[in-house]
Amino acid sequence: MRSKFFLISLIFQFLIMISIVASAEQETRLGIGVDPDIYGDKVVWSSNGSIHLYDITNRTDTELNSTSAYHPAIYGDKVVWLDNSSGNPNLCVYNISTCGKFLITENVTGGNTYVSGDSTYVVGGSQPAIYGNIIVWQEFIDNENPENKTYKVYMYDLSTFTQTQISNYGCQYGSPDIYEDRIVWANDSGFFGESGPIWMYNASTGNKTEIGTWYSYGCVIYGDKLVSHEYCANYYCIIVYDLSTNEASGVNSPSDPFDPDIYGDRVVWRDERNCMSDIYMCNLSTTNETRISTSGRASVPAIYGDRIVWQDRRTNQSAIHIYDLSAEPIKPQASFTTNVTSGISPLTVLFTDTSTGGTPTNWYWDFGDGINSKHAQTATHTFRKAGEYAVSLTVTNAAGSDTRTVKGCITVS
Known about the structure:
The chain is built from one helix and 42 strands. With about 425 residues, it is mainly β. It folds into two domains: about 5-325, TolB, C-terminal domain (Neuraminidase); about 330-410, Immunoglobulins (Immunoglobulin-like, Sandwich). The longest helix is centred in the middle third of the chain and has 4 residues, at about 190. The protein is elongated, with a radius of gyration of 24 Å.
């Protein structure tokens, strides 16, 4: 039986938010990789075909045995990911308690992975989600005729070892999600004829319900809250559906928001305002908005409790970062590197911040020649006169500041 949500003001009602900048000293870099997920004190991600399992409490990073694995998800003591190590696509389930593996080989296909800017996307792929003993994913079938491509949605019950196809239509850009016995996904209904952009399937009753409006590019669920990434009146938006009240509201963003996730009353997403790509969070209870990352190159956030993880390309490699909303501030310890230390005038030098401790929110470079640079994590400077120059970097965040000075850092002849 279908149910339509009433959208306030014809499409949706924006939440009125107070913008807050998060304290970056609560941010920590965990390791190199992409596609992070988090549950409790465990974080998983993929890196060069392997899955990493990081224990926040013990600060240990365990590399799970695989050569072609990606898109991990975690719930409880189980990690699931898409695995192509054998040359055939599988879903691999790893039990943290027993270190045992379980492979699902039926109706599993990989997606078309591509990189756009600072973000990695998988089109039509099996990006699995897990809750309890239920795993959900979609199968991508690439027929010769592009108009006949299909994205079938499946669930697998680990307690009964049974697989069920729950939809003939998935979403080209999204993937299914699950909370308790509710499975949600967006579909390409506008192209394949099945009505409604979002469907919800009840694994206990087998009932399927249509939710929301058109043009959803993916959705996630937690409790009675369903968060959808949609196309609204010529721009992208994030819509929050309350399944208990049949009401919808919008998460306000002056630019295109992507990659939403939800835990409790907190929604996180990637936001491209001010020509930056950063992680933002909205508290649905207070309507406060918080900017979590400050690098301008962050994407794919996931949230659990007070912790938010994401992938960040602030350097040449994508790294996994974690932000703890409850952590105490930590002062940064300044340090930096240079690509050269000497040369003929005019000499252009690249200075790269390598500070440790708390993550800085402000940088001040003194190059020793009377020309200084502010607010630049990475700075390029040209020395035009011969001489020996002392260079210093001062880094600051809410917990304090620290300065590193290197005498004779640059020699120009």
